[in-house]
Amino acid sequence: MDRSLPLFALPATGDTPAHTRALHLITALCRVRRTDRVVPVASAHISGVSYWNLGPAGLEYLDELAATGRVRVPSTLNPCAFMPSAPPPWVTEEDARLQARVLAAYEAMGVTMSCTCAPYLTQPAPLFGTHLAWAESSAVTVANSLLGARTEREGGPGALAAALCGFTPYTGLHLDANRRPRVGVRVTARLDEPLRMGLLGAWYGRTLGDAVPQFLFDGPVEPTRTGWQALCAAIITYGGPALFHVVERTPEAATFPTLPAQVTVTDADLDDEAARLTDLQPGEGVDLVFSGCPHPVAGTQACFFHRDVPVAEVAGNAPWTLLAAPGDAATSVQGDAATSVQADAGTSVQADAGTSVQADAGTSVQAGRILTLPGGCPAVSPLPPEVKTIVTDSAKAAFYLRSRGYRVGLAPTQRCVELGSTGRWPHAT
Amino acid sequence: MRLEGLRLTEGAACGRLLILTAPLSFYGGVDPESGVLVQADHPQHGACLSGRILALPHTSGSTVGSWTLLRMARLGTAPAAIVSATADAVLVTGTLAGGIVHLDGITVNAALDGCDALIPEEGEWLEVTDCGDVMIRRPLAGASGGRPDSHRVRTPGMSPAPETGASGGRPDSHRVRTPGMSPAPETAPASLLVPEDSPLILKLGGSLITFKQSPVPRVDFDQLGKLARLLAANLKAPAVILHGAGSFGHGPVARTGVLAKALDDDARRDWGRIQALQYQLSAIVCEALADAGLPVFPFQASALGHLEGGRFVLTDVDALRRALLAGFIPVLYGTPCFTEDPARPGIASGDDLAPALALALGFSRVVHLTDVAGVHTEDPRKNPAAPVIPWITAADDSTDLPPSSGSCRPTGPTVGWTPPSFADASRRGAPTDAPPRPSDGLTLMVTSHRSDAATATTTTDFDVTGGMAGKVKKLYDVAADGVTSWIVDGRDETAVAAALAGVPAGTVVCAKK
Asked: What is the C-alpha separation between A298 and A291, in angstroms, rounded?
């Protein structure tokens, strides 16, 4: 059912100054996208939460909107740099205060303080066919591809404006015609590990660009839920579309005829992609291990907290292990075995190894620490200044961390745990 | 001069034009405190944006750019206005939040840098004073799908412009202009904008339908099929289709040497065989076009006319008219042809046929689908970065040759080409005293001939009928007669759709008035 409206059906001025500004932005975005129709949205997901992305002018803009603006549809918030109530040890009080002001502005507008890039995990997931205005690219891809909802890849202000007035431009992936698959891709590579799914997304985006693919998973192993998230996050990060179909697996796939496979993706392709995305040399030290991009389902990071192994040994030689997770108490990461490690809402938990371990060449270093960042995202947050090399299990995180100048290694989650322990990028196996 | 666009934010502005020739990332690319462009690799590095009317193709880089613009506005270092070719959400968020006047859908010729300009309060145009020539690229319909069919076509003296925008049209219908406040638009030559249902001559380049470099005649079936489907989807007007010969023509002509040979029976057999080859190619092309759904009907040009002074003269136009009236799309092709000299048959290429057909049938537009994006400022094979010239205007008298601003002069692959004068064009019937032109003798038409021993036997990397320079020159000639020509990349779906819809794309060659 087409629920779109002509743009002139919207009021020229809103109820409040903030509402008016939102209407003006939606109108301008309609013109930029060359449409004169808008569509009501069921929810909005807003990015632009890290103060380090907004800067002083962005914060000022939010404060002005927050003075009179209230969201008209359920709205969720992307991760911030860190929860200001529990700043990691390397940020200053001023940093925490600025981040808190951003959150306060959104809270004043009625945005749910979800602080996650996976709102479909913490809030009721969007229904098939509903129109949304979502800004976080990985969540946009999940909503379009895995849930069959419809959203363009909005920017932060566009999603906020949609939240404030309830409408979004009726273009792009809101329209049937643009959701049709364009290229048939047969995947024979094994997809048994979330990282492999991420590599598939990175490979596709890099080689085939933004044509909507129709994947046929022909490999031996089923992807996991975290794997699906990794594919969604990586494909759009590396220049791919915000929508893909997988024959017999995604909800809209049956709507379209099966395309002949024009491309085949093999294990070798994904191995090449992993090598392409890894900067670290064998033997190079690992300063930080990062898992949790996108924010995972509760419990999936438990492997970092072994039941039988003391935290000190798990954390091992890598100075930091960061685990990002939704900022919501109900789903925050619980190291179910490590009773001392609990991520409560807004409380970052430090599992301090508390012991010095002997590193090579006789240098004494501080033992590593596992730190959960509920509601945070290392890609947009300040990191300890001494960190130069990062190991992650996420192709998307690798992209953003590399663009910030870090040297990155990609490894499956289980290997990340081990690398945290050894503190060295391994020699070729 | 007036450049029409699409208004994104309210307000009036005036100032000196600053034209950026490359996309700009506001975040990191501009110092908000000083307003200076600091992006190291940017061609306008060091320019101060403050208070200028800033024309730019589009923005690149981080979404944080919105906040940089807002910060500039708050600090008073922002541009007076922004004129973009294709804005995105980042740019418009910044201009709207910062209250910076913003028009979209306008590309400003870099030659206008430094000119004074203004954007009136209620206007959707940029008024440039003291300027040479301009180019406009009209906004295409939504990048994601949709044909660019919503553009209003304006003719001089019609004001306000008729509202022909159907659904999906320009989203500014609430802004109604009264005749009193909008003088006749003088933005672009009127001939640049052609109604999409106006009949056209459509030339398919030989390199699009055959492997032009192939030493033996060889059809590129993939490309031909794609092209046929693209045309079937976008061709809405009555049309005559012409196709080039590609490897069915240039190779055989060069190999047999018929153009240089005396006309004995041996040469006659070669001529006949070359003609027969063209039948074969045309049969394949017609089959593909018909398969895609186009009602095509093949015609042989050498049966309808002859060459005279290097120009094709269409002596029998009646059959074509009848075919068009009956709803067919006649298909013709470059072919050997007889000339005024019985001893020297010649070749009427698709580029020769296009203007002759347009003039004889009274069609006002010719669309050339080629394998390049348009006319480049340099040979794109040598310099892939050479930009496409968006339009070339033919002057309406002999003194006013192509605009003197260098960027508008076709400096195509032929060295030393001089624009023809139109006094000359008017003496078309008596070409004897005309200056030499590429079409004056077929021996002059070979533009380049790779003859190094290694490749000469296997490759025919040349065009016996004039290449791009010859093409442009022929279009330039007919532009004075009101025929507007497009040169676009036949593999670029958007460009083809735009050209068929009568919207500027690739390079447009048109009359100045």
From this structure: 13
Q: Which helix (H) or strand (E) holds A213?
A: strand A213-217
Domains of chain B are 2-132 (3.50.30.10), 200-511 (3.40.1160.10)
Strand partners, A408: A390
Tokens of A222: 């089923």
Provide, as residue numbers in chain B, all residues whose Cβ is less than 8 Å from the Cβ of A48: 63
Domain limits of chain A? 5-176, 180-276, 288-422
Residues in chain B within 8 Å Cβ distance of A209? none
Task: Say what the pLDDT of residue B316 is.
Answer: 82
B window 127-186, beta carbon within 8 A of A:
139-146, 168-174
Each residue's pLDDT tens digit, B177-236: 223 333 333 334 444 556 667 788 999 988 889 888 777 788 888 889 999 999 998 888
Q: Which of B278-292, B355-369, B394-408 has the highest mean pLDDT?
A: B278-292
Please tell me which residue in B25, B34, B62, B405 is annotated as part of the active site. Answer: B62
Strand order in the sheet with A245-246: A245-246, A213-217, A183-187, A261-265
Domain A5-176: homologous superfamily in CATH: Aconitase, domain 3 (3.30.499.10)
Question: A interface toward B at CB cutoff 8 Å?
Answer: 7-8, 21, 24-25, 27-36, 48, 53-58, 60-61, 154-158, 171-173, 175, 177-178
> Is A180-276 assigned to CATH 3.40.1060?
yes
Task: Flag whether pLDDT at A75 surpasses 80.
Answer: yes
Of B87, B90, B171, the CB nearest to A36: B171
pLDDT at A114 over 60: yes
Q: Is B429 exposed, middle or buried (0-12, 13-18, 19+ CB in 10 A)?
A: exposed
A335 or A151: whose pLDDT is higher? Answer: A151
> What pLDDT is stored for residue A209 in this prediction?
84
CA distance A31 to chain B (A): 6
Answer yes or no: do B168 and A172 touch at CB < 8 A: no
Clarify whether B62 is annotated catalytic. Answer: yes
Q: Is the ipTM of this complex over 0.95?
A: no
Burial bucket for residue B96 (CB in 10 Å: 0-12, 13-18, 19+)? buried
Chain B CB contacts of A98 below 8 Å:
none
